[in-house]
Specification:
Elements lengths: L6 H13 L4 H21 L5 H24 L11 H12 L3 H5 L3 E3 L3 E7 L5 E6 L3 E11 L2 E18 L1 H17 L4 E9 L16 E4 L9 H19 L14
Parallel strand pairs: 5-6, 6-7
Antiparallel strand pairs: 1-4, 2-3, 4-5
Helix pairs in contact: 1-2, 1-4, 2-3, 3-4, 3-7
């Protein structure tokens, strides 16, 4: 099952190989001197206790400072390059890569063409609709729709990563959550954001939005909060266990599952 979640590395590599022409060497030097070391250290942490998660966050904060200094010096790099925005998406992979349930159920990490329901074309053929997300924990399976074979990515956890969360971005995340839940009602959809610009009066309650929760982790230009990341990690782990566990009919006590 795919565990290739190096979205930030792929972004850097893209700049090295094609996007910035004569500036190739600048990106290559940064990747070797900073990113490659960051990646190696993140991959070397294999435990999932508070100390290990704390170390992952410290590495993340250090790398953010390095990338921000790099971008400040190279003022010709625009936000459209998505160099910075892919860091948090990739960090989710570093964060969840060692969860035992992921290995047990042979789950994978994805960010493209996640299953979001079915549609029918003008020839009467049924095909899967898909949605791109920033980070998804799911399972790739083969299915048959009306005699047509398809490979789909069934989402279990979907995460939208935002450095800054405003009303427009939140609306877009809600739209993604709605589409994913039309195809997979049990999927949990989260927003992981540095900080929020949404007025508190406009923050919906859980029952008013398809988003299951928004985690604010602190301004990524200063310091990501270790406790917030630990809380986020624990909730995702609990969701994975709950969603994939079988429920038993009770003879005494509550009948409907929580």
């Amino acid at each position: 099952m795919p565990m290739e979640f190096y979205y930030h590395e792929n972004n850097l590599q893209g700049k090295i190989t094609k996007n910035y022409g004569k500036q190739t060497e600048i990106f290559n030097k940064f990747k070797i001197e900073y990113y490659d070391k960051y990646k190696q250290k993140q991959l070397s942490i294999n435990k999932i206790n508070t100390e290990s998660i704390s170390e992952k966050v410290k590495l993340l904060n250090k790398y953010y400072k390095e990338i921000d200094l790099f971008l400040l010096e190279k003022d010709w790099i625009t936000t459209q390059s998505k160099i910075r925005s892919t860091i948090l998406e990739e960090f989710c992979g570093f964060l969840f890569k060692d969860l035992s349930i992921i290995k047990k159920l042979n789950l994978g990490f994805f960010n493209k063409k996640v299953y979001a329901g079915l549609a029918i074309n003008n020839q009467g053929k049924v095909f899967p609709k898909t949605k791109d997300v920033d980070f998804c924990i799911g399972k790739e399976i083969s299915v048959d729709f009306g005699g047509e074979k398809h490979t789909i990515i069934l989402p279990i956890i979907a995460i939208e990563c935002k450095t800054w969360l405003d009303k427009t971005m939140f609306s877009e995340a809600q739209f993604t959550a709605q589409k994913l839940k039309q195809g997979s009602p049990n999927v949990k959809v989260y927003v992981l954001a540095g900080y929020s610009g949404i007025d508190k009066k406009e923050v919906p309650s859980k029952g008013q939005t398809p988003i299951d929760q928004v985690f604010l982790i602190g301004d990524t230009r200063n310091k990501v909060d270790e406790i917030a990341i630990w809380d986020f990690f624990q909730e995702i782990e609990a969701d994975l266990i709950k969603i994939t566990s079988s429920s038993e009919i009770r003879e005494i006590g509550k009948l409907l599952p929580e």
